[in-house]
Amino acid sequence: MMRAVIPFMREKKSGAIVNIASTAGTSGAVAGIAYTCSKHRLIGATKNMAWRFRKEGIRCNAVLPGAVDSRIGKAIGAGHGGE
């Protein structure tokens, strides 16, 4: 998706990209290695894009939500020694 919008933002010399990752991408998680790796990769790509296009007026940031108090969150925690 980032690749698709960058040309338009470069033309306008401004833009903002917001990616949704997870705290699992910075600290690991019980969610599994594939999930953790995918979020770590997205955070890295976001930082790279922010650095690469900063002089062209394009901002790139990531939002990293943490665990959510829900039935599925509790089930995951319970399966890994949590409550």
TrEMBL record:
Record-linked InterPro entries: NAD(P)-bd_dom_sf, SDR, SDR_fam
Q: Domain of life here?
A: Eukaryota
Gene3D superfamilies named among the record's database cross-references: NAD(P)-binding Rossmann-like Domain (3.40.50.720)
Question: One MF term in GO for this entry?
Answer: 3-oxoacyl-[acyl-carrier-protein] reductase (NADPH) activity
Which CDD domains does the UniProt entry name for this protein?
SDR_c
Q: What is its EC number?
A: 1.1.1.100
**Catalytic reaction annotation:** a (3R)-hydroxyacyl-[ACP] + NADP(+) = a 3-oxoacyl-[ACP] + NADPH + H(+)
Family membership = Belongs to the short-chain dehydrogenases/reductases (SDR) family.
Q: What is this protein called?
A: 3-oxoacyl-[acyl-carrier-protein] reductase
What is the source species?
A: Colletotrichum destructivum
**Lineage per the UniProt record:** Eukaryota, Fungi, Dikarya, Ascomycota, Pezizomycotina
